[in-house]
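step=encode ok
step=design start
structure_in=
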């Protein structure tokens, strides 16, 4: 869990930092999201935690600031499908990279707030649950879109 916490802090700091070039931002986002996703896959459910301890949540204003920062990324929209395991051309959607970044920021911030309050088991549960139910889909969609951008932009 320590590696996930460290990478989550790095990600949240990046979300609040002044942006670089679109190419730099795309590469950083791709790297951070890939590491976050890989780290989250290693999380087990804690043996014991208090379900009544709720984390502090990011305000809508703070979420909007991170969303606006998404303009620094190399693109915003991409083709997506909510559940790619179901093959259905009617299910196509438009993914929003800025929304992915901001939603992941919101979920990770909640887990980090629990860590900072000393509630490690609750943080582990929150990070794992939100990964499974929400931010994992945002991350996997963004990773794929950024990978395709990276391959297209790469100069061989």
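sequence_out=
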């Amino acid at each position: 869990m320590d590696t996930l916490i460290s990478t989550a802090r790095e990600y949240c700091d990046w979300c609040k930092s002044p942006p670089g070039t679109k190419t730099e931002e795309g590469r950083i986002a791709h790297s951070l999201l890939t590491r976050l996703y890989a780290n989250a896959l290693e999380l087990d459910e804690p043996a014991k935690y208090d379900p009544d301890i709720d984390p502090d949540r990011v305000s809508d204003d703070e979420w909007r600031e991170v969303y606006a920062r998404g303009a620094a990324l190399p693109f915003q929209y991409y083709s997506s499908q909510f559940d790619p395991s179901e093959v259905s051309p009617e299910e196509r959607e438009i993914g929003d990279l800025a929304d992915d970044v901001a939603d992941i920021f919101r979920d990770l911030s909640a887990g980090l707030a629990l860590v900072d309050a000393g509630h490690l088991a609750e943080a582990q549960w929150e990070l794992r649950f939100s990964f499974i139910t929400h931010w994992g889909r945002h991350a996997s969609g963004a990773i794929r879109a950024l990978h395709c951008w990276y391959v297209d932009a790469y100069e061989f």
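step=design ok
step=annotate ok -> The mean pLDDT is 93.
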